[in-house]
Specification:
470 residues, Rossmann fold, Helicase, Ruva Protein, domain 3, 5-stranded parallel sheet, 22 helices, 13% strand, binds adenosine-5'-triphosphate, binds magnesium ion
Length: 470
């Protein structure tokens, strides 16, 4: 089977047939044609066709046999019909999907339908093949998150993984763009081949071209031997172009060419080289704005963002924070052979309210630092760097999370417990949370707890809770 797919173009009009055939061949598909109805089924069977592109008038001439033989069709066969009308009964036998197109044939529209058809097929076949445990492994161990934006992201990654379409991952710094790119590779049928990352911002402009495309001996001073570039290393695998927004204009043109023709020239070479590479690109810059300010080519932007994926910042999925903290704590305790037990409730509360401008990376670094410095015991508010303690935040812990925290704590242990101190602890906790949320303002905290200010102050004194007096 041809890796880009085999297409059968069926049309009695030679001009349209040849035009579509030349165009799709140039796009890298394996194309075969049929001009007369008599040869249609032979070609269909012999060539292992993935997609039929047919003129509706032609299709009518093969309709009766088409129906009769439908059980022989590949269940993923896609039919793209163009023309005035295609009778519904004609289309029914095709198990996969049917797309329709108006006449005269517009080649750009045709190409985009063919790409959709290929995505549909790889999605379906991958759905069938994909081992659930591999998915679970990635989404429970590598990319952590149970919030609904993250679950949507996981679904998206699974869906796009096996299509060859270029994916553009956007998101703030530290949101997990590289993790997502790796997940796409691991979930795809390319997983046994290389995942090759290139950080376009980290490599000096004059070296990036040879880094990407390689060079031949003597191409420039110091090029003593031929050297393969990252495109070649990623052949049959995935090339991850990180910080794509930093790529300079001259290289943008060259990249566009590889995306269009699947071929490139190593620096100094006279012949071009074919590659089969799946591109995943990422940036934390706003590419739309770069296009408007003419710092990023619009045509390249469209080529890259066939499938756009956006990873939401951590402050928009705060439900994930406790789970992330827990995961990092376990990891760093193990790595560093420390035994930090956990975080006090007020620390958790502070961290759930914080804005996280550095997203998951910032959280990961903070947990690592706390584990190293504390070494054991419980991490309390005093252990946090100042910036986490200052500032007031308006976010409130989502109801389901509050519920789960509370019910988890109100479990009666097997050995029994002291009700009075549990109630006391419960009360203290809510008072601390109210004070954290109000930035230490007792009047506001009292309002949150439906208490008089004086009552709250009395309680604080009695409990000897250490908050600054105002
Ligand atoms: N959902 C997540 N679960 C677990 N770890 C995560 C998650 N998201 C990010 N991380 C961790 O945070 C750090 C940053 O992730 P990554 O490098 O993928 O971010 P990025 O979006 O590429 O950041 P930048 O734009 O700064 O390059 C990594 O150490 C990664 O393991
Ligand atoms: Mg990154």
């Amino acid at each position: 089977m041809h890796e880009n797919g085999t297409i059968l173009i069926a049309d009695s009009d030679a001009r349209t047939r040849d035009l579509a055939s030349a165009f799709l061949t140039y796009q890298g598909y394996n194309v075969t044609t049929s001009g007369v109805a008599a040869s249609f089924f032979d070609t269909l069977q012999k060539s292992n066709v993935d997609i039929i592109i047919a003129d509706s008038a032609y299709l009518k001439t093969v309709a009766s046999t088409f129906n009769a033989r439908s059980s022989h069709f590949d269940p993923l066969l896609v039919l793209i019909v163009y023309g005035n009308s295609a009778p519904a009964e004609l289309l029914k036998p095709v198990g996969g999907a049917v797309f329709t197109l108006a006449k005269p044939l517009n080649l750009d529209e045709l190409e985009s339908l063919v790409m959709r058809a290929r995505e549909y097929q790889s999605m379906k076949s991958h759905d069938n093949l994909m081992d659930n445990s591999a998915r679970n492994q990635i989404f429970s161990k590598t990319i952590i998150g149970t919030s609904s934006p993250m679950r949507e992201l996981f679904d998206m990654l699974v869906k796009v993984a096996d299509s060859n379409a270029t994916v553009l991952i956007q998101g703030e710094s530290g949101t997990g763009k590289e993790l997502a790119a790796k997940a796409i590779h691991q979930l795809s049928s390319r997983h046994a081949k290389n995942f090759v990352p290139v950080n376009c911002a980290a490599i000096p402009d004059d070296l990036l071209e040879s880094e990407l495309f390689g060079h031949v001996k003597g191409a420039f001073t110091g090029a003593y031997t031929n050297r393969a570039g990252r495109f070649e290393m990623a052949d049959k695998g995935t090339l991850f172009l990180d910080e794509i927004g930093d790529m300079k204009a001259n290289l943008q043109v060259k990249l566009l060419r590889v995306l269009q023709n699947h071929e490139f020239e190593p620096v100094g070479a006279s012949k071009s080289q074919k590659v089969d590479v799946r591109i995943v690109a990422a940036t934390n810059k706003n590419l739309d704005e770069l296009v408007v300010s003419q710092n990023f080519r619009e045509d390249l932007y469209y080529r890259l963002s066939v499938i756009p994926v956006t990873i939401p910042p951590l402050r928009e999925r705060r439900e994930d924070i406790p789970l992330l903290i827990d995961t990092f704590l376990t990891r760093f305790n193990a790595d560093k052979r420390h035994a930090v037990k956990g975080f006090s409730r007020d620390v958790l509360d502070i961290l759930c309210h914080y804005e996280w401008p550095g997203n998951v990376r910032e959280l990961e670094n903070l947990v690592e630092r706390l584990v190293i410095l504390k070494g054991g015991g419980l991490i309390v508010a005093n252990d946090l760097p100042d910036k986490y303690l200052s500032g007031r935040h308006s976010y409130s812990v989502p109801a389901p999370l509050q519920q789960s925290l509370l019910t988890a704590e109100s479990q009666l242990p097997d050995e029994g417990m002291c009700l009075n101190s549990a109630v006391e602890e419960f009360e203290n906790n809510l008072i601390r949370q109210a004070l954290v949320r109000s930035g230490g303002n007792k009047k506001e905290a009292a309002l949150l707890l439906n208490l008089k200010r004086t009552t709250l102050i009395e309680k604080l004194k009695k409990k000897n809770l250490l908050f600054n007096e105002d």
